[in-house]
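Please, structure for the following, as tokens.
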Amino acid sequence: MLSWASRFNISVFLDGQHYQSPFDSFDNLLAAGVVDSVQASAGQALERLHTFMSRHDDWLFGHFAYDLVEETESFATAENISRGPNPVGFPDLFFFVPEVVIELKEDRINIGTVGQDPGGIFRAIQAMAEEPLTGGGGPIEFQSRLSREEYLDTVEALRQHILRGDCYEINFCQEFFTENADIDPVLTWRSLSQASPNPFSAYYRWDEKYLLCASPERYLRREGDTLISQPIKGTAPRIPGNVLEDQAAGDRLQTSAKDRSENVMVVDLVRNDLSKICVPGSVRVKELFGVYGFPQVYQMISSIEGKLPPGIGLIEAIKASFPMGSMTGAPKRRVVELIHRYERGSRGLFSGALGYVTPGGDFDFNVIIRSLFYNQARRYLSYQVGSGITFYSNAEQEYEECLIKAAGIRKALTGFS
């Protein structure tokens, strides 16, 4: 199915990787081809999306890049929002009405099209045998925009900001990149999915630019009048090959004072964001400090939900909550300024969101983390990783956490397993 869709210049493949959740409504969802689209830079992007949505009572797929923060958060000076380099080049916002939508569930496949024969599409997909995962090539050498020493020094500088009361916690990220990469995006995404299957995985092609995503995190989902967010704060490495030690690692995360502190901070932030648009008194924490196992790590996940009043939809939800608290920190406005000051380069699509809107106005968006970003024309390949910095953070441990989070990406790029 993905091999068939990858021929289109614009396509999205969302893969739940067989994870079971009460909030999920499909196993795989694919959109390909463009009937109509909207592309915009931060400033009037959400207004343009609102106008676009008012014209289309249909499926919509697309993304919000992190730099949309320039529209959703206000800043003291223009200097605070000056952008660094963004070599991958995804726009701040892009949404499209697809020519083809394919919804795959356990017991059926639904194919919706504009001007095409669903049966013909199904036969074309069947006729395309999946390529074997062979080849792989040698390891790709990445360089960092920050040396290890610069990273450690920056963490210490951020701890001083926390000590002075500028913020409580900040998500600090770094980029690893190469400017000489030739990869097959479909095969690389399939390799990443095997190395690191996660419930919000996605393959996204936007002309010569690609997102290969293995995200474990949901940003926002609307189902009827219910709005839910499931932020992640708290990470512990898995211990493969030793069941008892692996279980103990999860138990330690569950009781970690530092990780619980980070998690409750983001829960409070999300509760505040959702309270801006939800029915007063309806926002509640559905689950606090849940620990879930993924291929390389355990993650601490909390779930917050609220009830939306009539007339409130995606645009209002994005204005109230973007960028997501798990990728910024608290208080959000101040840490966003510090992110722009201390991070090297633009986050671009990293820590943005990719997802869909149904014809009825429901929606679901992930948090774009644990991902590869590829500009095929420029041969530029990168990934970004980060961690939540608090006053009690150990800079060396935070650096190691970044490497752990990138383990699935590195495994995918060393060959196909």
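The chain has one domain: 2-222+329-413. The longest strand covers residues 297-307.
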